[in-house]
Amino acid sequence: MTTTHTVLDSPLGPLTLVARDGALCAVLMSEHRQSRLLPGERRDADFVAAVRQLGEYFAGERREFELPLAPAGPPFDQRVWALLRRIPYGETRSYGDLARELGGAGFSQAVGRANGRNPLAVVVPCHRVVGADGSLTGYAGGLERKRALLHLENPARFGETLF
């Protein structure tokens, strides 16, 4: 297993992209704890498509990512992350909405935990999950970044942005 990384300057600050055997397994902001993930050797050439697609996203030119992904996590987290990828660009869902899709409103806290463990920030859009009342709650990168991402995707609905 080969693990490589690169660092991308983005409107959110530096993002560390990590791949295992050619599949993106993490997009980390400076706030993310990296204790479980050793980023391996820096090889910028391994990330041409990811860097291009993230650049297009931040420029408002891309709505979906087309990258091989390999996030590591338990089966429940994987199910939550798959649901996150189905939330359309510019839209949001509540933790309860996702919990109901997984079988019951009682899963809301577990959905929140899985959302918080999402290793693929931006690419797997955990920023699109909001409180039941539509309020911006919890984001590993901070609520300012969450608001900025939501504004990028839907400026009419969300206030000021960082970029």
Strand arrangement within the widest β-sheet reads: 3-2-1-4
Going by helix content, strand content and strand pairing, the class is: alpha/beta
Helix-strand topology string = EEEEHHEHHEH
Give the uncertain stretches in residue-range form.
Answer: none
Gyration radius (Cα, Å) is 15 Å
Dominant shape = globular
**Largest sheet descriptor:** 4 strands, mixed
State the CATH class of the largest domain: Mainly Alpha
Mean pLDDT: 89
Counted by DSSP, the helix tally is 5
The percent range for strand residues is 15-25%
> From the 3D coordinates, which CATH architecture of the largest domain would you assign?
Orthogonal Bundle
As for the CATH topology of the largest domain, it is Arc Repressor Mutant, subunit A
How would you summarize what this structure contains?
This is Methylated-DNA--protein-cysteine methyltransferase. The chain is α/β, with parallel strands linked by helices. It has helices spanning 48-58, 75-85, 95-101, 108-116, 143-153, and strands at residues 3-10, 13-20, 23-28, 41-42, 93-94, 129-130.
